[in-house]
Amino acid sequence: MYKRIVIIGAGHCGGRVAEHLRKRGFRGSISLIGCERHAPYERPSLSKGALSKAALSKAALVSEDSWDPESITLLSPDKLAELEIDWIAGRNCIDIDPEQQEVILDGNKRLRFDALVLATGGSPIKLPLAGAGQPQVMYLRTRNDATAIDSQLAPGKKVVVIGAGFIGLEVAASARMRGCEVTVLEAGSRPLARGLPVQTAEAISELHAQHGVEIRTNVAATSFEGTNGRLNRVMLLDEEPLPADLVVVGVGIRPNTELAHKAGLSIQDGISTDAFGRTSHPAIWAAGDCANAHNSRYNRPFRLESWKNAELMAEVVAQEIIKDIISNLEIHLDSSQQYGFFNDQKEQLKDPEPAKETVSLENNAVPWLWSDQFEYGLQTTGFPADGDEIITRIDGDLRIDFAFRDGKLIGAAGLAPGAKAARDIRLVQMMLEQGISPEPKDLANPAKKLKALLKGK
Ligand SMILES: Cc1cc2nc3c(=O)[nH]c(=O)nc-3n(C[C@H](O)[C@H](O)[C@H](O)COP(=O)(O)OP(=O)(O)OC[C@H]3O[C@@H](n4cnc5c(N)ncnc54)[C@H](O)[C@@H]3O)c2cc1C
Fold it and tell me: How far is the CA of 340 from the centre of ligand 1 (A)?
């Protein structure tokens, strides 16, 4: 039954699904289809080290000129070959036939599937403004986008970033580190409104100001003007035009749901799935940025755009597909001699035992993400922007804003040089996982160790 698994999207999550399927013993065919020509890679460095040329990234440790482009490769072409994963590069999947269980690639190539995983990620939201088609108005999602932006950065260049979210501000910090003059335009009333409490966002704005980045809020770009095919200014609503050599737009992504939509799958801000990544079609799963997965811990679905979510959902989906194979084995065990299913199915798994550790969205899905802003590392867990009360703890150069809602801890954001916030945010994540909500006054007091508060002391 499960001889052919097809994965659409050879990005972070798709690559990991393929890898986990092999790790968990699947021996049937795996096709990994990707529009990009690069083998699966991790995107976070694209707005950090790839542009700043410093090895910022996860550890947020600045060391000039030490960024290695190959460091973001998740599965090299050699590794894919070794794992016998059929990587179909530079091809677009244009349709799914759910009845026939086939996917259709550009050029009309058809591939049958027994299980299909949609790991199609998201696409940057484009600004529908006059002049936005000029080559110096750029977006950042892929390695090629990062290379194109990188080629435009040079000391003294005027860079305008539109959108003061995580990626916009990371691009701003990177461009500034390369000596550009950087202005960030935000249409809303404050930066980072979607992901952070106002207090943490203000601390990050202050950091940008100290480094010479100007963040302007309540400002709307209306068009882009240029001469002789070269951008030279951004037109603003009710304000003076802003000179610009380069514009980078970072106003969010839309989940890539077109294929799922055509296939008649249920969609609601992403492809709707259960807590195991299964869509409304029993043989189709979705994972990563494109998936809106139900989460029993929070008793609601949510769609996360983060590295950790791509890692976790990939593992969960691979595990569930393997479980399906195993339960099919069990169902057919009695009739196996008669129908010959058993031997045939057993062939697909090297070791048809469930993996020892079980991963699940419920147990592991307290959101966590990081961002690097200059020499500072930000880490968040839970839903720090959704609090109705914020408690701040300052411990030397480490700042943590804890978000409470209805008197209960729901998230936190930590900001500190390098990776200094990591340990404390991990402890808060454990509190959230275990439903522990310490007293606000204890969280505000740096003398009270978070480890002790986690243990209820
Ligand atoms: C610049 C940048 C910085 C980031 N920084 C951070 C960070 O600091 N921390 C953090 O937690 N997260 C960060 N993220 C988010 C993180 O990288 C994403 O959440 C993660 O890449 C999602 O993985 P994915 O596989 O779902 O999507 P992707 O990695 O985008 O992969 C989807 C792939 O599917 C392909 N595809 C789509 N449709 C088709 C089709 N029809 N046919 C064939 N192929 C198709 C796409 O071309 C793409 O290659 C960042 C993202 C970006 C872009």
Answer: 41
